[in-house]
Design brief:
By secondary structure, the chain is of the alpha+beta class. The protein is about 25% helix and about 20% strand. It has helices at about 20-25, 90-100, 120-125, 160-170, 200-205, 270-275, 300-320, 335-345, 380-390, 400-405, 425-430, 445-450, 490-500, 510-520, and strands at about 5, 10, 50-55, 60-65, 70, 80-85, 145, 150-155, 175-180, 185-190, 210-215, 225-230, 240-245, 250-255, 290, 295-300, 325-330, 350-355, 365, 370-375, 410-415, 435-440, 450-455, 465, 470-475, 535. It has a seven-stranded mixed β-sheet, with helices on both faces. Strands 1, 2, 3, 4, 5 and 6 form a six-stranded mixed β-sheet that branches. Helix 2 (about 90-100) crosses helix 3 (about 120-125). The model is unreliable at about 520-525 (pLDDT under 50). Its cofactor is [2Fe-2S] cluster; [4Fe-4S] cluster.
Length: about 550
């Protein structure tokens, strides 16, 4: 295997790689702005220049220093090469580049959203001067509204062109370009073509400075006050890896996490901004029951759960097998689905289990950079079906459930959708039955159900989703559930306990539930208790 040395540290590498790529793989920092692993290399920022020595085949392969500094982002790594990032000559270049970049850069770190995660700020501390020698007047560049979600503060731009290359090579929409020359050079959108592609928010993520800003996050919270939870897209079927950033149980933004096998470095704007329903003011916050006058009244959890458990148990005993049905939303985790299914079959071994409707919007759309937006808008339809199939021989799809559950006496329905989801045929089917609704937002059913139990969104709990490509991925809890709100899994365990069902868990823990699933179904359930951060590709099973 070929090897090279970077500041004396020996690094092995395989295949065709640049010096900078080898450094990144080995945890060695070489400052850079314009380089991004997903896009073409332009070597324009010049801060990654370093002294390089390599074997000279014309001189018995003696290691000789290349006379000039070379861009490590563009220079192919070679066996026997020696790179000096911290040599006096390399450091002098880093300082010179930083001084040049700061000539016209405004000193507005105290009001810049990028402060705290800004490469220019970080490199200025490491490689910059303590004071500026620039005495002339800084060139002022305008602030621009370039799209629905993005602002451009041109005076902060260092012309790395990451955003331009993104729109050309990843989204394929080419809204951004470089206009002007010299000190008047600036990034802008082409006339009449605002930045409004479905991936536009990613340009904010890849901007190394605070030039491109997210309107939704603008001046809302300092990044050093944010906590971060590693999560999975809970809105679509793509299973994109995301970071939920929050403070004091309030979500402020969602950003992508890198997973080359799933979403690479990107997320769609739908995922980036689609979490807002989590903090809607009209969230269901208390259990409620339908009173004798047809109105609704809030009740405490214990009497609500006790009453539901007793009523379901009574219906199952009096009406016999097949009296209870359960519709599990594809918005729920595998763990929630298992516990709800376990509840239903513990009350009624012949309970009808179905998967809720899977929202579809348009068609799948693929982008030049390898990212795909899927038409399916449910994060776990496959996972729910996979788990329920181990509890019953016949997992019903939504339409089949609506027709077959008409024969049952009691229906447990789960929602957790971001938008209106209750269709007339479902509402008509359950009319006259004992209906227990577990949901997060008001709907047609929340007004008519006998009992409504407020559920938690995926941001407020932990579990696993199986995406459209059958990859099982774990997400962790970011914020606490609202007061008087519980996860669907915890609600199911509470109901089992009050109904007298034999189940070993009483407090929801996603890893313990996965262990219980695996323990009961041994190997064929395909929901392992330990899920790696990058997810697990499940063997596809025709269910």
């Amino acid at each position: 295997m070929p090897k090279l040395k970077i500041d004396g540290q020996e690094c092995e590498f395989e295949g065709k790689k640049t010096v900078l790529q080898v450094a990144v793989e080995n945890g060695i920092e070489i400052p850079h702005y314009c380089y991004h692993p997903s896009m073409s290399i332009v070597a324009s920022c010049r801060i990654c220049l370093a002294e390089v020595a390599q074997p000279n085949p014309r001189n018995d392969n003696k290691v000789e220093l290349i006379p000039k500094l070379v861009p490590t982002c563009q220079t192919p790594a070679a066996d026997g090469m020696e790179v000096y990032v911290k040599s006096p000559k390399s450091v002098a270049n880093q300082k010179a580049v930083m001084e040049y970049l700061l000539i016209n850069h405004p000193l507005d770190c105290p009001v810049c959203d990028q402060a705290g995660e800004c490469s220019l700020q970080d490199y200025s501390y490491k490689y910059g001067r303590s004071c500026s020698r620039f005495e002339e007047t800084k060139i002022k560049q305008p602030k621009k509204d370039i799209g629905t979600n993005v602002l451009l503060y041109s005076d902060r731009c260092i012309m790395c062109t990451r955003c331009v290359r993104f729109t050309r090579e990843v989204s394929g929409t080419s809204e951004l370009g470089v206009f002007g020359r010299g000190s008047s050079e600036q990034i802008d959108v082409f006339p009449g073509k605002p930045l409004e592609n479905e991936l536009s928010g990613n340009v904010v993520d890849i901007c190394p400075v605070g030039a491109l800003l997210d309107k939704d996050f603008l001046m809302s919270m300092r990044v050093w006050n944010l906590e971060r939870a590693s999560s999975i897209d809970g809105i679509t079927a793509s299973g994109d890896n995301i970071s939920i950033e929050y403070n004091q149980d309030k979500v402020y933004r969602v950003k992508p996490r890198t997973n080359i096998d799933v979403n690479k470095w990107w997320i769609s704007d739908e995922i980036r901004y689609g979490w807002k329903f989590v903090q809607r003011e009209d969230r269901l916050r208390m259990p409620s029951v339908l009173n004798a006058e047809g109105g609704r009244e809030d009740v405490e959890w214990k009497p609500a759960v006790e009453a539901v458990a007793a009523r379901l148990k009574k219906i199952a005993e009096e009406s016999g097998e097949g009296a209870i049905s359960l519709l599990v939303s594809p918005m729920l985790s595998c763990e929630d689905a298992y516990l709800l299914g376990k509840l239903a079959v513990s009350l009624d071994p012949k309970a009808k289990l179905g998967v809720g409707q899977v929202p579809m919007e348009g068609e799948d759309k693929s982008f030049p950079g390898g990212y795909t937006i899927y038409a399916e808008k449910a994060p776990n339809a496959r996972g729910v079906r996979r788990v329920l199939s181990k509890l019953t021989d016949n997992v019903l799809d939504y339409d089949s459930f609506v027709s077959q559950a008409a024969e049952t006496k009691a229906v447990i329905v789960t929602g957790n959708y971001a938008d209106a989801w209750v269709e007339d045929k479902l509402a008509d089917m359950i009319a006259g039955k004992y209906v227990v609704l577990v949901d997060t937002l008001p709907s047609k059913l929340s007004e008519t159900a006998d009992v409504v139990l407020p559920g938690a969104t995926w941001v407020e709990k932990a579990g696993t989703f199986e995406n459209i490509n059958n990859r099982l991925q774990r997400f962790v809890q970011a914020i606490k559930p609202l007061d008087y709100v519980k996860s669907e899994g915890q609600i199911a365990m509470d109901l089992m306990r009050y109904a007298g069902a034999d189940f070993e868990l009483s407090i929801y823990d996603d890893a313990a539930v996965r262990a219980a699933i695996g323990g009961e179904f041994v190997t064929d359930v395909h929901v392992p208790s330990e899920v790696e951060e990058e997810g697990i590709d499940l063997e596809y099973v025709e269910l």
